[in-house]
Model the fold of this input.
Amino acid sequence: MRDLLAGLRLALVVAGKDLRMELRSRTALLSALVFAALVLVVFNFSRDPTVLSATDLAPSVLWITFAFAAVVAMNRGFHAERANAAFDGLLLAPVPREAIFLGKLLANLAFVGAVEAVALPLFVLFFNVDLGGALPAILGVPALATVGFVAVGTLFSAMVVRTRFAELMLPVLLLPFMVPPLIGAVQATSRLLADRPLSEIAGWLRLLALYDIVFLTLSTLIFPAVVDE
Amino acid sequence: MPSSDGILLQATGLVRAFGATRVLRGLDLSLTAGETLVVVGPNGAGKTTLLRCLAGLMRPTAGEVRVLGRPLRGGDAEARRPLGLVSHQSLLYDDLTVRENLLVAARLYGLPDPGAAAERALESVGLGPRADESPRLLSRGLLQRAAIARALLHDPRVVLLDEPFTGLDAPGADRLRGLLAERVAGGRALVLVTHHLAEAWALATRVAALVGGRWALEAPGGGDPAPVLAEYHALVGANAGGAVA
Done:
């Protein structure tokens, strides 16, 4: 129990460091936010409302925006570790590799959560979607879907950070793994926007939860092997 | 605590290969408290690879590294605690100030008063007035001082140094020699890799030359460095590989 608390404390130190660095440079957050806003604007103006209703298109657009903005945000996660070989300093410290992973994951979740928190109101504004009573559930779906793919993204960021084309490699590796949670999230969101009962999305939510558990566990277990040269 | 035989750092049969190229070819090394091993060698001899293996940043292809009797493995975080590393690079984050970098490091090492530890480290390298600047704004020499402060922050039992005098001016180099000598006198052990033996000679209790991934020369430190230098030059050729001063 004491080891667990010590590991959690170290994970918070790592996450706190990443958040402080990001708040100072704002590189990832700003680029992800600008990207999200651009995607929403482009999709909004390219849609012919007489052919395709907002509720038919909106879930896909929302999740494309979230997914690619998340990749932009996560690309930054290990980029800062590469300069001055700072990651070596982290690996040299008496910090369990799992705590480093958890810290990085928490920071990435905060970045992606912040992007989603800003993109969601923009989405409502541009697509004139009435969230109504579905708001809590609409907020719950991103929370459930994001954890899993951010865990995989954090692992892959660590894998590609030492490669020459890290920024290119991350989406190439990550996007196939994002397909299951994206399908689940789009399906759940479209049913929620159509005011369908919660029982209709229970299966999709279970899929998202299962994905989170499986990939959170796998990523945590694989991370130490990935970072040890 | 050191291992029962007083050895702080031990490497046995260390081999590291990159594909078909064997950079380290079965090195043995042991270091007790108060010892300074100065490692020289031409470019590509495997000096940096050796230090990375000793620091646990690179897994040896074969062989083992033990720190205070404890095998150095990625899964054993505590085995890394007694180690400090001054690398070719500063290991500092450009988006944090030097002081913040040291604070983060102090927290990662679980030091009881991170603020005081960071201040002591800054003071020891004379970097106090520039502590609130980003490492990217520092000159090469000041950045090296910051890297040294970070490496020595937690008072490691074993300090691994890769060309630590690079970029330092004469007072800075003297200050570093003083800091390292204090630590050796306090029972710490150093492995110092350099191309310029003269800079580190005053600290050396042993000198070893690494050539082609093997120990090619071992000699005690102290006294006149000329015979050791002559032997080393004869070994690698005066113009072969890195310059040795």
Summary: Chain B touches chain A at residues 52, 55-59, 74-75, 77-78, 80-81, 83, 85, 87-96, 100, 104-105, 107-110, 135, 150 (CB under 8 Å). Chain B has a mean pLDDT of 90.
